[in-house]
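Job type: complex structure
Entries:
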Amino acid sequence: MAGTSSTDHTIPHASHTQDALVLRMDKAARALLASATTEEDTRTELQTMCLPMTALWCRILRFDPAMPTWPDRDRCVVPSSAMLPLLAAMLRLTAPAGAQELSPTLEYGQHPAVEIATGPAGQGMAAAAGMALAEQHLAKRYGRSLVNHRTWVLARDSDLATGVALEAAQLASRFGLNRMAVLVCPSPLTDPADFSDSLARFGASGWSVRKVRAHDLGGIMAALQATLRARKPTLVACMPECCATLPDLPAEEELTGPWSPTARRGGSIRRSWLRRLAQHRARADFEREQSGKARQTMREDWGRLWRQTMRAAPDGSSQQAAFAGLRSLAILRQDVAILAATSSTRSSRRANLPIPFSNTAQPCGIQEHGMAGMLNGMARHGGILPCGVAGMMTIDRMRSALRMTALMRSKVLYLLTDDGLALSDNGGGWQPVEQLASLRAMPHLAVFRPACADETFACWQAALNWPQGPALLILCPHPPPPRAARRTGHYGGPSHGGYLISCGAGERHVTLMASGPEVAIATQAGQHLAEQGLNVAVVSIPCWEVFAQQPAAYRTAVLGQEGLRVGIEAASSFGWERWLGADGIFVGMDDFGISAPANAVYERFGITAGAICEKVLARFLASGAQKDSSPTAPPPSRLEALDMSLTITRS
Amino acid sequence: MAGTSSTDHTIPHASHTQDALVLRMDKAARALLASATTEEDTRTELQTMCLPMTALWCRILRFDPAMPTWPDRDRCVVPSSAMLPLLAAMLRLTAPAGAQELSPTLEYGQHPAVEIATGPAGQGMAAAAGMALAEQHLAKRYGRSLVNHRTWVLARDSDLATGVALEAAQLASRFGLNRMAVLVCPSPLTDPADFSDSLARFGASGWSVRKVRAHDLGGIMAALQATLRARKPTLVACMPECCATLPDLPAEEELTGPWSPTARRGGSIRRSWLRRLAQHRARADFEREQSGKARQTMREDWGRLWRQTMRAAPDGSSQQAAFAGLRSLAILRQDVAILAATSSTRSSRRANLPIPFSNTAQPCGIQEHGMAGMLNGMARHGGILPCGVAGMMTIDRMRSALRMTALMRSKVLYLLTDDGLALSDNGGGWQPVEQLASLRAMPHLAVFRPACADETFACWQAALNWPQGPALLILCPHPPPPRAARRTGHYGGPSHGGYLISCGAGERHVTLMASGPEVAIATQAGQHLAEQGLNVAVVSIPCWEVFAQQPAAYRTAVLGQEGLRVGIEAASSFGWERWLGADGIFVGMDDFGISAPANAVYERFGITAGAICEKVLARFLASGAQKDSSPTAPPPSRLEALDMSLTITRS
């Protein structure tokens, strides 16, 4: 099977005729580029990269224009909108006769060969590395007879200079992604020394770096052929020559129709691939995974396996429950691929991170941003369900990549560990504060912050079913205090995004809402307040996005129509007005944390049951005093005597 | 003046006695480290770095323990909490007799020699580069007689592997920061090949990289001395030896008091520096800038100069006004240092970015994250007012660094260009959507989004006066439509964070709130609604943080007590409930943008005066219908006939 690797890609005897073909296609492409209106500087780059790109498409690329969604196609990633006209030209030249005319401004979503959305510089490099990793995963499972493609990137030099590209380059080299190749040329605006530095940094990251002259077809072909045999990821730098001229072609050699060599080669390779697929023993699995579906029995199997796993380790923290969920999911779904922000031999900082699936997760060390970018590429590749594991505090670094995930609505699952005020238990740390709000503000992203083991698993399932794209599970390493079984007034469940944990009968006086570790505090505060004669509802709201999608009647039933609303979360209040209204109370932290053991931080920011009760009672006393116009308020223990049916005057 | 450079730092004839001194201090430091409780892995690193750090402190570092805030001290940056015990040991050994005992868990804010807060890996490297750049700036202005220090970093290998450190390394080399030196050792958990790769990448980034044996004092001293003469930033990798033993010292050589060589050298250098300062012609400027103050006449001068500048370029976009503000500020305040995310010869992507101050701004190319990290260091260094210029869309990449700025409450000003739906005018771009909310959620950060030129300058002043730390100006390149002079009901001003642009007399029916380019749309919608007989107030709210700090009476006067509230912003609705209440209407975009000309995007997301009016009138009709229980609502043109004095029933 490995033998098919080279034959599919290389054309054994490069002849003069074939060179002429490339030059003809190049000429046609240049004509198309000339009509595309772009800025002067990008036009120079497009012209420089035209011959290398044409050579790739005409002679090497494994791509069938008649079926651009073919799973075993070569991925040709163009991460910047500046270079897209070149891809558009290639697609137009190779399109089968009668194909729909492409829009002149090609964009992600308009053609399946536009593999990723354009985004900040460097993201495309990371995504391409992710695609190469996905290919490696699938090739291991299905063999080279089904999975035998490569990932090409048409980058710009600004991509190479970014931190995320350098992180991804390190990971690509560490994971041995030798089927990834990057074509790049220096921008006319870049200092040549900077470009050389970029090449040197890729060399230092374990890449094979080659320089070719952008107008020398022989050199380009040699470099492209060399990438097919390379044992490292390859960077081909195409250096422009100011006064190079291409050989003139006879006039009758003008382009007349779909570009035959690419289409002919791609079509024939794909047909033989289809024959191999038809006879492949794992055909059903392959096709199901390519469509992104799971086995029908998955749901029950997963629940059973998760409960089994949890029985062996009954710690009950959301973090442990989520890892058990991931481990059992990875057993049931072979397409799960895990990248984890840990070093191979767990680094000391994260020594407490339980990664019991260390044989399945690929360690990405400190390169979280590169990792997140790669997860995008893995999701876009297809046939893979990518999961990322990282610390909650590192999400800021991954934000650009996460935005691309949400923007492309890709299914990527993140497990973010060490949430809450837990970090500081190791001393000298700052707590996440505004991260939750900043994530909830991102469209298409679902943020889950479960409170206990059962809630975690329900959130895991909801995350997998979240239709819009990526989902995050934000996890706490500390087990919550044991909770009484079902309380009175339990209504709904975590899969609805928010639900009633407990609620007394009759008119509601206070609704305490919390997520994650703060649910236990809310429950405790609820008990105290109930002892004071108040009718208290406790709501866990692990996922705002899912909760917001519930019918209004469900939301009202959970949040209640009257009474004081209190939000409790060890995070910024930003955005909580959505649930609390103008008169609600928020108990959290609107400042960066302090360095102290977790309990001390909870005390310091007043996120304790006692402090919550005080605030709530103070509000009732104030409103009671206002209502009665009596200068002395009744003591808290007498609150039950107040006529609560008149409810709270909104101050 | 340049000649003092080497003499201050080097001890010309390293003698055996001095080696013995270092070894004695090293032994004392090891004893202190042994008592510090740290994890096993970090303890190994601390032990490895002990001799190099001791050699630095004992023989090289320009630091007076009696005055750790001395402006011309060497900066010794320790970016990870894991390595802080080593700094604590140095501070304890060199502390003057009778000094207050240091807390065993040393932290940022507890001692002036802890230069930066610990944060995500790599941030400290960038901050140190920023300090070296600040030193370079100040040395150019005041000469080596006043500014002659260096920046040392005690890094970990995880720092080196991050994208932000690599970006900062490139910038450090590009800016010629040869007074920056990094000491690092491999972590016992890191693959040695990865560490070698890291060193190679720094070499490829134009750094001088040296390997020394961590127990070889001679080698260490030679490497440290070499950094003093280096023409590049230096990385000294201290390689641990498993079976190295340090020479035994006689028992009576135990430490008894403050470590004399460091204190003696530092004290003597500082005293001669004080003498030079006393006679320096620019002493007053130096001292004022070190205290972070501006000239008393600054405020008026700035306004005058800004108006002059604007007269020459009366385009009126907030972006142009902000750049005029920066340019005039840089003329008046010599301590302003500007880093801009543009390449030296403006890259094509940003060709439309007006940087009229290209001679003062230092170009950081695509390395925004490294740039933002450096701005932190520049602010922490003192004597510099750092300003960063970048595109609005790149703020996600800078987020980790920005968080450090806010956490340390450093004064850094950012000008973020190309906000709003403007980007897509160049075709093929995505608009910022959730960025505003994610920034507003960050504590201590003030986010300004001015609407017109005058508002921009008022925001500039407010940003400079924002007491809590960093401030962002979010700028639009398109000029707003001309606005009528003062309207009826104008109240307050942009420096209050939010103000009334116009308001009819009598009871308010609708309050339209907007920021930035959407203020013009709100004004237009207000006119239409007023024509329908509604009493409309238009509010511009350029800065939520400043507005939230105004007295409640002011906020109520601006927002009004009754009537419908409508928020208009071409961004995510997240967080707007704070101002709109539960029943307000938000007009914006809760999805990622589309690629189209700006006006088409406004149309597509319904952010137009017409669409706003429709929504408002529909709400009035619905509530009117509800109130009257009449099945047919009156036509909009008859709305004035409704008894509006009963105001709107909240639905």
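Summary: The first helix of chain A runs from residue 4 to 9. Chain A has three domains: 4-95+115-278, 292-474, 494-646.
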